[in-house]
User: Fold these one by one.
Assistant:
Number 1:
Amino acid sequence: MSDDATLLAERRSSWTNYWATGALHSCLGSFEENYAGDVPGAWREALAGLPEGSQVLDLCTGNGALPALFLGEFQAGNLARVVAVDLAQIRPDWVSGLAPAQQERLELRGGVQAESLPFPDASFDMVCSQFGIEYTDRKASLAEAARVLKPGGVLALVMHDTGSVICRNAREERSHLAWMAERGVLDAAADLCGFVARAATPAGREALAADPLAEQARLRLNQVMADMTLRAQESEVPDVLVQSQHTIFNAIQAAMGSGDAGNGRQALDWLRQQLAQSDLRLAELLECALDEAGLDAFLEGTGFVEEGRRALDFPGGQRMGWWLTARKPA
């Protein structure tokens, strides 16, 4: 498998696993539920300009935050169909809560690359994406967006901004992950599992109490966990530290209660995989975020005519991302 194909498979697997958690969007460390602040107003404005019976394509939909907004909260009557695609496999639970008439207007497809869309030319009145298209090969994705748009069709995008609170949180969370790896947090927990598994029997507990290596392992993990607690208390984004501590505690309890170190280490292996995938997603987010120069160059050579751009904020005024709209020439 080529490097590009390997990376694509890793991305698909990572995001498939993430969306399987039921998360509606990709920035749960920054805000909960669906997007708030300036975002709904921007999308209301974009939809209001579409003709009756419009067909809309949402690229890199994730678990369908935009279709949920369009057909759920907005119940946009001028949309005949919303098609939402993603590279990952997606099965959002919220769809079952839509009225039957709304469900009939929605089509979700997983395993679809934005760079190679399975739709005929001039099929859609609007192509949109929210924190998605910037993750792709932009030149290829924008060419495909232009191909499937009708003449005069709209391109509407919310994209990551390097100066946003989302990117700031991502940088801090990655620093936590790097710190955990440097301190050998999971290795310390796995080591202790091998000792505490003896505690399942009286004889094992007696041997454990007399084993200086077991005491060293206990003290090592206790110190690391205490340092994690302090780091979490000092962080604006402590989630990964707190959640990791919880999983580590449960892993130690599993090894101790069952008498099998493998039970605890299995939980730690799962956590190690989750943290690695989270780091992959965060690194990708930061790599694809745009500064003003990147936004200036985003549509160059695509044939799209830019119509508007502005910064979008969270409630309270913290920067969320960029809003960019353009049109395919008629």
Note: The chain has twelve helices and seven strands.
Number 2:
Amino acid sequence: MKLIKNVAWELWLPVLLIVVWLVLSAGSTSFYFPSLSDIMNKFAEIWFFDGIATDLLPSLGRIFMGFGFALIVGVVGGVCLGMLRRTEEAFRPLLEFLRSTPGVALLPIATLFLGIGQEMKVFMIALACMWPILLNTIDGVRSVEPVLLQAAKSYQLTLMERIRFIYIPNATPQIFAGGRISLAIATVVLVVTEMIGSPGGIGYFVLNSQRNFDILSMWTGIVMLGLMGYVLNFLFRLAENRILRWHIIKNA
């Protein structure tokens, strides 16, 4: 019941704006700005269900693979660098340089070595998503209370036990914070890579519709991108609230 109330409170403004858009755009004859009712009819025609199989599922697969790789590398690398302060200080200039370089700026290099297929798209998503997770994990590991480390030393906990029971739990809230940022970045990078890559995916669908002057279909692709981003963020927050319930209760 609480979840339903939260969702209702979160959706009332978007629903209101959609209703306003529907009313104001009714009867529109503009080629570039069709009415919302026309967009909705075209949306149902395209995306249920052929568009889901040909464009939505490939895009979701690339996001999941790229984000998954970024999560593994970011957490493992963040824990290691967070524990090894001197090593992290040595790598910090390099990390800051790479983090400050926009991921899409490396797109020509990625296409040169990986082509324009699936591998390039997944690599670019993983590369762009890794930095928020990595840096947040480092900060989370560094923020462990010294008293906990002293207690672990007194109880002679092994390195793996300290990582499992002290470092990871302490860094988990910041890992999730970095993960939420990375998920939004993944959607942006996905669209860019699909627009210059091989056919298939929502980004390619939007660009191809624009090139063919099928503006109505282009608008349906943009709407699908927004819906996909919202649903992914919503599911991520559900997982975050469930996994971090102990943290939420502790800080309530």
Note: The CA atoms of residues 99 and 131 lie 6 Å apart.
Number 3:
Amino acid sequence: MSEKKLIAVVGATGAQGGGLVRAILADRSGEFAVRALTRNANSAKAKELAAAGAEVVTADLDDEASVRAAFDGVYGAFVVTDYWVKRTPEEEAARTRAEMELAQADIAAQAARDAGVKHVIWSTLEDTRQFFGERDDVPSLDDGRYKVPHFDAKGEADELFTKYGVPTTFLRTTFYFDAFLNAMGPTRGADGKLTISMPMADKPLSGVASEDIGRTALEIFKHPDLIGETVSIAGDHLTGDEYAAALTEALGEPVTYQPPTWDEFRTYGFPTAVEMANMFQYYAENNARFTGDRDLAKVRELHPNLQSFATWLGEHTEELKAAQK
């Protein structure tokens, strides 16, 4: 029997990395073994992965030596950075989240190069500045550097993997269906009726089940011919009204789509309101290109069991119903 190829998974206790770890462990082909990288190997999630058969090691994307050691001897590496990670006030003051992601991507790319990793998958997004340019109607953030920092920094980091000569597949993701279980989920108004609200007007929003990102990554590792390519994924392209209709069917009561404008959304009081409004404006105005790059039929050739929104809802209806009580 040939030796299994070892895959190092950054963010193994998170949504994307965790999905890949579970996919590798469940894969009947047995082609790969998995090394789960986490900042805290003693966490409950890390212990669950170890019990399931993963090799769990401590590594931090801010610590180059730990990442280099974790990449030693592996065939492949899945790299994802977490823009939304919980940070201390001191960390927030030291550098922006976009600067953090760029620095972490640089560390990961150099570590992969130095370790001789044969295939890296970099979880990334489009750089929205290539679409928006210098438009004044879309506010700039991070001292004018970005329009949508959690997109743009990842897009900017793409070139680091190329710069260091790392054999990389660029895996472009999108909006998570999972958001409907929390911040984007239906809310009940004073009239008792459920609504969803996102500033997409009548344009389609590409969505994907977070678990499917890791599952797709596994299929990419099985295709070394995808090294140097960009794979853009989604499980569905639906308008707000279509998301509402699917939620209506799943919940058994009407859900209405009520889209604010981008400018209205920017006035909402939460800290990332402007960034998120810019993101939705990008999704909406660039929808033909964005959804076109995420060819559902083509993605399903790679990962046939990729979930549609309806399929995902079938797995999460009870969670959604519980959130409405």
Note: The first helix runs from residue 15 to 26.
